[in-house]
Input
Amino acid sequence: MTRLRRIADRDRIFFVTTNLRLHTPVLSSTERDLVLRQLTRQHAAGEFLLFAYVIMPSHVHLLIAPKAPGLIAVIREFKSRVSQQLARTRGTRAAIWQPRDKLEYIHENPMEAGLVKRKESWMWSSAADYAQPRRISGLIDPIDLPVDRHAWLRMTP
Output
């Protein structure tokens, strides 16, 4: 889920993507069942309307309309519960989800498509701007997305 703060996080439909961390083992079919059970529990509790979902080995997509708790609370609980359950089954405390989903997702698309070996190599992307801060092209407004999900966002000077 994105770390960008939202003005409204309910009463609308959101497309949410959350990815596993790089180098984290992909979700097995049993683990995908675990993810589905957590989604089912929260949906049954009336936290959201769920219009579509897909649980892939490396990521999850949701088309969701949060109710009273709001999107941030729903996704925080979802990711937290799944992380706890996976940590128990895998016997590890390692983080499961990527801390900067949207930024990394955007930058890794050319690699995933097999167009380049390094995300910074794709000349039609801001990945190199983030990899080499002195190179900032002037096209983007860099943002520092903190790992702490409770921290405030601030623009990079």
